[in-house]
Amino acid sequence: MRRWSCMLLAIGIALTACGKEDDMNLQERAEARAVEARAHIDDLAARVGTDPEVRLNTLTACIPGQDDSGLDLVYTLHVRVEPGAAARLTDEISAHFAADGWVVKHDPVDDGAVSVRFQKGTFTMGANVSEADEWAAVSGSGGCVR
């Protein structure tokens, strides 16, 4: 009897969860995606450096000037970095995210900085490390929510 009660409870929760997303308006769906995106970006920032400072955190139109184009998160942090942060980003941090299914792309940068982008599903994020300036910019998005 207890097993059936647990199964019915689980089915009820699953059915309730399925209906919720359909009932959510655009703003609520975009906020839900933004929460998940911020978690990924915060994780990357913590691996790259310390003392995160949020520089930009906003939901904006997917296509500038077109309010009906959907909503997209723009989230940027700055973190302090120590010597070796650039090498960690290109090696162990990139390997960690690649093992978790993220597509990793290393971008050339002229000024001695290191730039790496990560993409998984609708989520994108990246880090640009400048050890000479002792800081890194980490930013990303959850992708356009329509």
Essential attributes:
146 residues; alpha+beta; TBP-like; six-stranded antiparallel β-sheet; 6 strands; 41% helix; 38% strand
Overview of the molecule:
With 146 residues, the protein is of the alpha+beta class. It has a single domain, classed as 2-Layer Sandwich (TBP-like), CATH 3.30.2030. It contains three helices and six strands. The chain has helices at 2-23, 26-48, 85-99, and strands at 50-63, 66-80, 103-107, 114-120, 123-130, 135-141. It has a six-stranded antiparallel beta sheet, with helices on one face. β1 and β2 form a beta hairpin. The radius of gyration is 19 Å and the shape is elongated. 25% of the residues are buried.
Write a compact overview of the structure shown.
The chain contains three helices and six strands; from the N terminus they run H-H-E-E-H-E-E-E-E. It has 146 residues and is an alpha+beta fold. It has a six-stranded antiparallel sheet, covered by helices on one side.
| Second-tier CATH architecture | 2-Layer Sandwich
Radius of gyration: 19 Å
User: What's the SSE pattern?
Assistant: HHEEHEEEE
Determine the number of helices (DSSP H or I, runs of at least 4 residues).
3
Cα-to-Cα separation, first versus last residue? 44 Å
CATH T-level fold name: TBP-like
Please give the CATH class: Alpha Beta
Number of strands: 6
Mean pLDDT, nearest integer?
Answer: 87
How much of the residues is beta strand, in percent?
Answer: 35-45%
Strand order of the largest sheet: 1-2-6-5-4-3
Given the C-alpha coordinates, what overall shape results? elongated
Query: Which class do the helix and strand fractions yield?
Result: alpha+beta
Low-confidence stretches: 1-21
Helix percentage range: 40-55%
- Number of separate domains: 1
Sheet having the most strands: 6 strands, antiparallel
